[in-house]
Amino acid sequence: MLQGKWLPIVLIVLLGLLQYRLWFGKNSIPDYYNRKQEVHTQALQNANLAQRNALLKADISDLKIGLEAIEERARNELGLIKKGETFYRILPADSK
């Protein structure tokens, strides 16, 4: 008669321990959802970096191919002009 009482108690305790580990232990369900969110965030960052890398590769190939890209960069970033060109600087009107 004593054996019949212990088996359900042991099974309930084991079920409780497994449930505790499932919800609160290491690698639990909340940990899974946190990791899933981290993976999603990292995937977005990777996509942004891949797009940036593609733009940089396009710039590199433009610079390797012709002088037009180099000339454009010199004009935009360094403010250089060619011989015979006239430089005009347009200032915005002061709003008083």
UniProtKB/TrEMBL annotation:
Keywords, in A-Z order: Cell cycle, Cell division, Cell inner membrane, Cell membrane, Membrane, Transmembrane, Transmembrane helix
Gene designation: ftsB
Any one GO BP annotation for this protein: FtsZ-dependent cytokinesis
Compartments in which it is found: Cell inner membrane
Cellular component GO terms, alphabetical: cell division site; cell septum; plasma membrane
UniProt family annotation: Belongs to the FtsB family.
Protein name: Cell division protein FtsB
InterPro entries the UniProt entry points to: Cell_div_FtsB, FtsL/DivIC
Subunit structure: Part of a complex composed of FtsB, FtsL and FtsQ.
Phylogenetic classification of the source organism: Bacteria, Pseudomonadati, Pseudomonadota, Gammaproteobacteria, Alteromonadales
HAMAP family named in the record: FtsB
Source domain of life: Bacteria
Cytoplasmic face residues: 1-6
